[in-house]
Design a protein that fits this description.
mainly beta; five-stranded mixed β-sheet; single chain; 22-stranded antiparallel β-barrel; 729 residues
Length: 729
């Protein structure tokens, strides 16, 4: 890690958050709503309330409770357990990997409607641009895969913004994670955990209104359906109607319905059905601004490069999850997921966007896309068997898992090329398009299989060893109707992980890990040879600590990740590729979250990220990877006056989210300037009533969150005000 520079921020923050006394009154009402769980099922939203740092025991803790954070102003920035790192409910303090958790309370306090807003709180996370309709994330310099309840969510994530109404928390696992999650980039994974039924009746109604004609009511209902609580439900509803600061874009509208039904068949068996349906129509298609020279074109933020277009998006998910405990130390979880997704340009508003800026640095070529769009369908099954046992004085938590998946994709698009627009003196509408041409007509069928084994070993009371391995196969059959060609792809890979953790004190742990990832590569070389999967290899060392009497949790990590088998141009055959590219990322990350004093919550992060090209035959070695700032960080804090105070019910929030200069493409042909965005909030709650006033981008900073190409540069939202009122029963 010779390129890593010293960082003293961790020491400064550590001095700030010294131990003080802890008051539990803030969470009293929260605990009344929490649901006791019969056992710790992998990937269920269940954590021990404040588990001591101890080795995994053969028997689960019957006192575990649902980690549900819906009570306004109840605290809840600290989470000490996570399921995504090991697929078992394990304290973060004894998990030998860097994992950050964003609880629901942070999402609510910041008025975060999009997942992107919540993930600004995590070190090393930056953003691309999803054409104004979806989220794209970068972790440690590499693209990050999204998951939901442990299932890969690639197709869903590529269509529309993920709805946040039914998200209970977000877990971010850093570094290669293929050992438990299969094909994934070496950056890590983002796992969204959904809300689950509560044992007591609960209702929350909220209405948010904001700048640019933003309106959003949400409803969250839960409770038992039978007297004995064996049957319980959760229902989240959301409607959104939103204008835009970007000129000419149509009003966006979305409807979201997410029911959950949990049936406790017996003391040891639970069956859960969960569904989601999102109708996002019209969803404006906004590629943002364009690059001119080595920077972003100096045009107004509001300018749309083309004719504003929109999409009609429908997506549905259905889950069925069976959990059974054979005995206190042996349990099983079987989960099925089906998804159906469709997006297409709206007939009255076809998609347009800049494809290239000409040599005069002012004329943009504009294309127009229409026709049937894309249709996705996926089937996945996971089966996990967890066994806790001892061999002498050594404790084990063994996990054996199988995963099957079938995915289908149908794509059909027409394009009308030839339009032009002067970006500095535009004349609308653009109407000088050529005749429509079929540019995409294909069908893809993908099959996946994975088998994995993991053992969390408590070698001693203060030493944890995690050994994991996974074998995956991937097969794809792609047929291109335009070229009348068929391409078959097959890949297999073994992904290991080794993690070691040592606790010199009960509230401090030191850890190190080694892990690998794999991503299949479609296509053939000039000689007809199938490409090898891209492989990622990561090394990480770090320290974790519970500070301030257990009210704060801090994580410090140093890492080195290399990604190889990257496609580059074949110098002997320009129409083909070869696999000689390699990229590397090294860095330091620090995260801290929790309650500094009664009523005073904080979540903060810092990242130093050196992500660059380490080997290539086209791109210059040393070029920085796009959307990966060298320095980035965040700080958000809230304070609510105590019940005995004369200002009881009043609260305030303030935060800064910053990123340094970033390159916008792999060729480093242009850069995005650094920025520091300031947000603030005011809260008031009495009885069942609650309210919040969020000020986003308080100083109206002009900034660009990320870019995918020279013609796709995301535009940060200017100063906005967002007011929320709600009632909770």
């Amino acid at each position: 890690m010779n390129r890593i520079r010293p960082c003293v921020l961790a020491g400064c923050l550590g001095a700030l958050f010294a131990p003080t006394a802890f008051a539990e009154e803030q969470a009293a009402r929260l605990r009344e709503l929490e649901q006791p769980a019969t056992w710790a099922a992998p990937l269920l939203v269940q954590v021990a309330p404040d588990p001591p740092p101890a080795a995994p025991s053969p028997a689960p803790d019957d006192g575990e409770e649902l980690d549900e954070v819906t009570v306004f102003g109840s605290g809840g920035y600290l989470r000490k357990n996570a399921t995504s790192g090991t697929k078992t409910d394990t304290p973060l303090l004894i998990t030998p990997q860097s994992i950050q958790v964003i609880p629901r309370q942070v999402i609510d306090d910041q008025g975060a409607i999009r997942i992107t807003e919540a993930l600004r709180n995590v070190s090393g996370v930056s953003f691309g641009t999803g054409a104004g309709r979806t989220d794209t994330f970068v972790i440690r310099g590499f693209a990050a895969n999204q998951f939901q309840n442990g299932f890969l969510d690639d197709f869903n994530a590529s269509i529309s913004f993920r709805e946040s109404a039914n998200i209970e928390r977000i877990e971010v696992v850093k570094g290669p994670a293929s050992v438990l999650f299969g094909r994934a980039e070496p950056s890590g994974i983002i796992n969204l955990i959904t809300k689950q039924p509560l044992n007591k009746p609960y209702a929350a109604l909220d209405f948010t209104i904001g700048s640019y004609s933003f309106y959003r009511p949400t409803l969250d209902l839960s409770g038992p359906l039978t007297a004995d609580g064996a049957l319980a439900y959760r229902l989240n509803l959301a409607y959104e109607d939103a204008g835009s600061f970007r000129e000419g874009l149509p009003t966006a509208r979305r409807i979201f319905v997410a029911p959950v039904l949990r049936w406790r068949l017996g003391p040891d068996t639970t069956l859960t059905f969960e569904g989601e349906h999102l109708r996002d129509s019209p969803r404006p298609y906004d590629q943002g601004l364009v690059a001119v020279g080595d920077g972003v074109a100096a045009v107004p933020f509001t300018r749309y490069i083309g004719n504003p277009g929109s999409l009609d998006i429908n997506q549905s998910r259905v889950y069925a999850i069976l959990e059974h405990r054979f005995e206190p130390s042996l349990s099983m979880r079987t989960a099925l997921r089906y998804t159906a997704l469709r997006d297409q340009p709206t007939p009255y508003n076809p998609l347009t966007g800049a494809g290239q800026v000409l040599a005069d640095n002012r004329t943009a070529l504009i294309g127009q896309t229409s026709n049937d769009g894309r249709t996705f369908e996926t089937y996945f099954m996971q089966n996990d068997l967890t066994w806790k046992f001892n061999t002498g004085s050594v404790g084990h938590t063994a996990l054996f898992g199988l995963e099957f998946g079938r995915l289908g994709l149908r794509t059909l698009f027409d394009s009308s090329p030839g339009g032009t627009l002067d970006i500095f003196n535009p004349v609308y509408p653009v109407d000088n398009f050529g005749a429509p041409q079929r540019v995409s007509d294909s069908i893809s069928r993908i099959g996946t299989f994975g088998v994995y084994l993991q053992d969390q070993i408590a070698l001693f009371e203060n030493v944890q060893l995690v050994l994991s391995g996974r074998y995956d196969t991937y097969s794809a059959d792609d047929f291109n109707f335009l070229r009348q060609t068929q391409t078959a792809t097959y890949a297999e890979a073994f992904s290991p992980r080794v993690g070691l953790l040592y606790q010199p004190a009960s509230n401090v742990s030191l850890f190190a890990n080694f892990s690998q990832s794999f991503t299949p590569v479609t296509g053939l070389s000039a000689t007809g040879t199938p490409f090898l999967p891209q492989r990622g290899t990561g090394y990480e060392v770090g320290a974790k600590a519970e500070l301030a009497g257990g009210r704060l949790f801090a994580n410090l990590a140093l890492y080195d990740i290399a990604k190889r088998n990257i496609l580059t141009a074949d110098p002997a055959n320009p129409l083909f590729s070869i696999q000689v590219g390699e990229q590397q990322s090294q860095g330091i990350e620090f995260d801290i979250a929790g309650e500094r004093l009664p009523g005073w919550n904080v979540i903060a992060s810092y990242a130093y990220t050196d992500a660059h090209v380490s080997q290539d035959n086209v791109v210059a070695v040393g070029n920085l990877l796009p959307n990966a700032p060298l320095h980035s960080g965040s700080f958000w804090t809230t304070y609510r006056f105590r019940p005995e105070s004369a200002l009881s019910g009043l609260g305030f929030g303030l935060g800064v989210f910053a990123a340094g200069e970033r390159t916008g493409d792999l060729q480093n042909s242009f850069t995005l300037p650094g920025y520091a965005r300031t947000d603030a909030a005011v809260y008031y709650a009495q009885g069942n009533f609650r309210s919040a006033l969020n000020f986003k981008n308080l100083f109206d900073v002009r900034y660009f969150p990320g870019a995918d190409l020279r013609t796709r540069i995301a535009v940060g939202q200017p100063f906005t005000v967002q007011a929320t009122i709600g009632w909770q029963f």
